[in-house]
Amino acid sequence: MAISKKIEKNFNAQMVREFYSSYLYLAMAGYFEEIGLKGFANWMRMQAEEERMHAMKFYDYILSRGGKVVLGQIDAPSKGWKSPLNAFEETLKHEESVTTHIHELASLSIEEKDHAANSFLKFFIDEQVEEEEGVHDILAKLRLIKDSSSGLFMIDAELAKRPMPAALGTAGA
């Protein structure tokens, strides 16, 4: 069964949102580099790469189901943040928005009786739980240290250890 036009359109839109997420986190990585927090910058660079991989997962899935990939315009992300706390508050808001979109896609796949699309989306539903939890953890630490520069440097050292995300595979694999 080929992908329906409705699922194709919405999966293409999500693919573009995932590319935007990558772009946003790359912008945040630049912000953290500028203020001398290379560990925070590393975390955001790895997040940007993970989001790019998510976009490619949608790309590959659409093609594997006989659909047409449509690369839409990617909006420019914000250029600066007031503080590391502010950047991660925005990160959480963004991830919550992504979660909402993924849930809408899952509901659409059920509506369309597209069990393959629904199965594909399970990865993203589980991933969003992890994404939000990870950002919540960092936010809790940032709120705990308040204005402590030594605390900020400790978190920076921790975030510097985030490894490159493992390849996610493709829909056809």
Characterization of this structure:
This protein is mostly helical and 173 residues long. It is built from five helices and no strands. It has helices at residues 5-34, 38-64, 84-111, 115-145, 149-159. The model has no long low-confidence stretch (mean pLDDT 95).
Shape: elongated
Q: How is the biggest beta sheet arranged?
A: none
Proportion of residues in β-strands: under 5%
Number of strands: 0
Residue share in helix: over 70%
| Order of helical and strand elements | HHHHH
- Unreliable stretches (pLDDT < 50, length at least 5) are none
Radius of gyration: 17 Å
> Structural class, please?
mainly alpha
- C-alpha end-to-end distance: 18 Å
Mean pLDDT: 95
Secondary structure tally, helices: 5
